[in-house]
């Protein structure tokens, strides 16, 4: 019986590894997350909602598209230990805004695509503005 159970587990693990292509699990440490809150900059109600949310998180608002982000957005950064509180906040307070959540690793394209999650409606991103592999781990430092 024990051998049969081990064989079943081996088959399940083999299938899982095969289903994920290379068979390698990604064990990179995630040190933080970005929460990008999107708003339609030409829509008064959407912009007002974004500004209210921005006031709550006291971060820089980008009123025009920047980098891979197709419309106005602002970014909030949190370390990995604050992720749950940040997720709770955005799930309860985003109203009609779309929020992109992605980890901070050296792999910007993967972080903004395969590793990303959306609260609300997803938006197309221009991933050509991102690096495949960064030399240094990104942090929650404010960029200009």
TrEMBL record:
SUPFAM superfamilies: DOPA-like (SSF143410). Residues 1-18 form the signal peptide. The keyword Signal applies. It comes from the Eukaryota. Keywords: Signal. This is DOPA 4,5-dioxygenase.
């Amino acid at each position: 019986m024990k051998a049969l159970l081990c064989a079943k587990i081996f088959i399940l693990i083999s299938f899982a590894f095969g289903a994920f292509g290379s068979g390698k699990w990604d064990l990179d440490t995630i040190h933080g997350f970005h929460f990008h809150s999107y708003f339609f900059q030409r829509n008064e109600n959407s912009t007002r909602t974004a500004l209210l949310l921005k006031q709550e998180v006291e971060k820089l608002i980008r009123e025009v598209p920047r980098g891979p982000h197709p419309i106005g957005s602002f970014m909030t950064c949190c370390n990995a230990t604050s992720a749950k509180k940040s997720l709770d906040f955005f799930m309860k307070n985003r109203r009609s805004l779309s929020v992109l959540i992605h980890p901070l690793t050296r792999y910007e394209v993967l972080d903004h695509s395969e590793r990303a999650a959306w609260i609300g409606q997803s938006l197309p991103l221009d991933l050509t503005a991102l690096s495949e592999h960064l030399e240094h781990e990104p942090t929650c430092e404010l960029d200009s």
